[in-house]
Every structure is written in C-alpha cells, then in structure tokens.
C-alpha cells in the first residue's frame, strides 16, 4: 500500500497528520512500559544505597568495602556490555531484553542471601554482568519504532525516570526497612527480595506483550504498520550514506571525544558518589546534631534533593533546547553542584545541609541532558553513535571509582568532608573542560511547538 509519509514546507520536512498519529499511537503503547523498565532498573541498581547502614552493620563492612561493593557493579557492566550486545544482535532485542530483565531481578533477589563482604561484592559484580546491554538494548529497540527526530525526544524520557526512582524508591525502600517483617530476617534482606520481584514479573510481560517489530503489533492496523515502516525506512535511507564512510577508530582518536569522556567521568563521579552515600551522610547527621530519624524519615529526606533536581532538570534542559546552547548549560550546573557539595557538611543545621545537598543534586542532574547533545554538534549521526557509546562505557567507570574512593576517604578521615571536596573538584574539572573543548557554534534551537510536546533530551 502506498503511503505518503511526509510533507515539505519552506523550512524542511514536516510530518503529515497521519504520520504524527501513528507515531503518537506507538509512543502511547510502548513508552510507558519502557519508562517503567528503566525506573525499576535504576531502583534495583541503587537500592543498596537505601540500605547502606543496616547492611554494612550486619555484614561488618567498612565504608571502603561497602563502596567497593556498590561500585564494582560498573566493572561487570563495562566488561560484559560488548558480549551482551553481540548476543542481542543474534537473538533479537525483545528476547535478549527479557533475559537481561529476568537475570538482574534474580540477582537482586539473591542479594538478600549474602553473608559477608565477599558474597556482597560478588553479587554486585554479577548485577553489573546481568544488566550489561540494557541501555543499548533499549536504543536498538527504539530504532525499530521511531525515526531519529522522534527517537531523541522519546529517549529523553528515560533519564527522567532516574531522579524519580530516587524520589519514589527511597521512601518505598525505607517503608520496607521500617515496617515489613518476615520472622527474624533482617529488613534489608526483605527489601532486596521484594524489590527484585518487579523485574522478574516484568520479564514475562516483555516477552509476551512487547512486540519486536511494527509488523507484529496487533494494535497497529495494516495501513499504520505500512506507514510506520515507510517512515523508518526513509529515515534510515537518509543516514545510510554517511554511516557507510564512518570508521570507529577515527572517533577513538578524536581529542574532543576523549575530552568528553573526562567531562562525563567528572559528572558521573558526583552523581554516583551522592547516589550511593546520601543515605549514609544523612544518617551521620543524626550523631552530629543529636537527632533521630526513622528509616522512613531518612528515605523522605533522601528523596528531597532528587525531587528538586527533577524539576530543575526539566526547566534547564528546555532552556538549553530553546536557545541551542550546550557547553555553558553543562558547565554552570557542574559549578552549582560543586558549590552545593563543597559547603554542605560545613553548615550548622540539618535543614541547611539538606538544602545544600539539594542544590548539589540540582546541578549534577541538570548537567547531564545537555551534555549528551554536545557530540552531535561536530560528529555525524553515525560517528556520534560510536562516540556516545565510548563516552558512556568509559565515563561510567566513575560509578566504580566514586563510591569506592568516597568510602576509602571516609575510613581514612572519619568523615565525609574530604570526600565531598573531591566530588567538588571533579565537578569543577568537568565544568572547565567542557567549556574548553565544546564547539563554539550553537545547535539549532528546538521549535516552540516541539518543546511544547517534549521533555529534555538526554
């Protein structure tokens, strides 16, 4: 069936009403479950931070040992991401995503049975192995359903689920820690067991209800499936010529890509240091100020910085899209984050400290969405795909370095003040470097009618 998929105006290609309708239908059908998957994924990745104190006490972990266990996840993730991608290419995205989701859920449940430092570190490493490939798997799946222009906006929704996972996940985990009891089992073990179940359940939902391709979607009419296939094919044809001439080794030698790895490392260092140790920092304030909070109250306090960060990230990213400026939209939040982290533990009340940590979270979270737009300012689409994968895989090793070094510094100094200054230094370095290496030209500003229907790109 012949389908007219686009209209052209003086300003470039525009989607026809029928095209927009089918893309909207796909978005409504697929995006909510993909967001839910990412939400559960992030909760299962960082819930070890929500249970940091009772877990460390029961397993007799030092701060360095806890930090090693929290961060070694990223070593497993880094080592097995490429093999996971190869298997996904051979078996298909839907089947391999189901394997990833099921295995990480089972490993989270298995965390409830760890007995000491070695088993804790081992299960965290296995969680990284299990999760490896989830991010590129989602990227691959989206290419089956959305052309590049819509795909960027759809994928941006995933990062919103990260702060929301803390806003909702921290109080939920705290409720389990405080109120759910199964005999004499430690509450943190119950938490891991309970929070691993959604992933196991979602694995069966994905394999049954998430179609691999438009042709297999029963909720698309034949005309809609044909229309969507034509949209996707035209999008691929538009970039096929450039992809044929891109060589990965050219990207690896690009000094700007190497610089972006360092920038992302600095941002992620702050991101995961706060994510894995925020609960411990807040609990440490109880001793300093002679106060007492229940686990649920600690969970609520932990959620406060991420709640502010979610709102700020939306507004700041929309401003970056509207103006087309990227470098300073990364640098300024990094400096704000560095300031908040640097002064937090030198303030005189819990209220002021949580306020400073909220400022830090606002800065760190707000820097990430505009950061991912910078490579496209000088790399072609195909080269950007290689560059982004390189930046993401190596830069995320900060997820290992940050919690381990933060814990080691805490053990060596007896407090988090020095560790906070290290985080500030990483963020300041990222801010200076991104301004130095980012292209001076601006991106094309996003039209207001598109901004009204989208969220910030990430």
UniProtKB/TrEMBL annotation:
The keyword Transmembrane applies. The chain crosses the membrane at residues 21-40, 60-80, 92-114, 120-142, 154-176, 188-210, 257-278, 298-316, 328-345, 351-372, 384-406, 418-438. It comes from the Bacteria. Its main location: membrane. CDD domains: MFS_ExuT_GudP_like (cd17319). Residues 30-442 form the Major facilitator superfamily (MFS) profile domain. InterPro entries: MFS, MFS_dom, MFS_trans_sf. Keywords: Membrane, Transmembrane, Transmembrane helix, Transport. It is a multi-pass membrane protein. It holds the Pfam family MFS_1. It is found in: Cell membrane. PANTHER family: PERMEASE-RELATED (PTHR43791), TRANSPORTER, PUTATIVE (AFU_ORTHOLOGUE AFUA_6G08340)-RELATED (PTHR43791:SF36). This is MFS transporter.
